[in-house]
Amino acid sequence: MTGTSRPFDPIVAARTRGKYVGGGAIDAAPQQRERAHRPRGPPEDQCGDGDVDAYSIRRFCERHDISAAFFHKLRALGLGPVVMKVGTRTLISRESAAEWRRAREAETQQQEVNETPAHLR
Q1: pLDDT, tens digit, for every residue of 52-65?
Q2: What is the DSSP secondary-structure string of 76-111?
Q3: What are the backbone dihedrals phi and psi of residue 41, each rounded to the nearest 5 degrees, phi first?
Q4: Which structural domains are found in the chain, ordered by start?
Q5: So what's the pLDDT on residue 86?
Q6: Sheet-wide strand order for 54-56
Q7: Is it the case that residue 73 has pLDDT exceeding 60?
Q8: What is the pTM of this model?
Q9: Partners of 91 in the beta sheet?
Q10: CA-closest candidate to residue 21, choices 8, 13, 11, 30
Q11: What are the helix (H) ranges across 1-121?
């Protein structure tokens, strides 16, 4: 850095050599920060359950208070709801969700009957 009237700055020198040096005012400049990545997807619907004709897997799991992993486990066991493919999307119709709930309720009632002692039936 000979021939300049500026004082030697080790941060500037390191950056010109391609080395990262944390701190400094340049890192804090808001116009140089990259924007956070936001995943794209369909917009959140603002309607209630009565207006929805089909659920995405995520929405179905939220509405039925189960995890996506448990949903896929149920599907692998043949106990999940009937799904439909629309393009690349997997949807569950409102009717299929209601039928799935009825089947789970009936299965639970049957298990309770089987577990009840014979003298109480």
Answers
A1: 899 999 999 999 99
A2: HTT-SPP-EEETTEEEEEHHHHHHHHHHHHHHHHHH
A3: 180, 180
A4: 49-115 (1.10.1660.10)
A5: 93
A6: 54-56, 89-93, 84-86
A7: yes
A8: 0.55
A9: 56, 84
A10: 11
A11: 10-16, 24-28, 57-64, 68-76, 94-115
Q: Are 60 and 99 in contact (CB under 8 A)?
A: no
Say how far apart CA 115 and CA 1 lie, in whole Å.
87
Q: Which amino acid is at 42?
A: P
Is the confidence at residue 121, as pLDDT, over 60? no
Tokens 């030697």 identify what position?
8
Cα separation, 27 vs 71, whole angstroms: 44
The neighbour count for residue 63, using CB atoms within 10 Å, is 13
Tokens at residue 105, please? 């309720």
| Contacts of 40 by beta carbon, 8 Å cutoff, 6+ apart | none
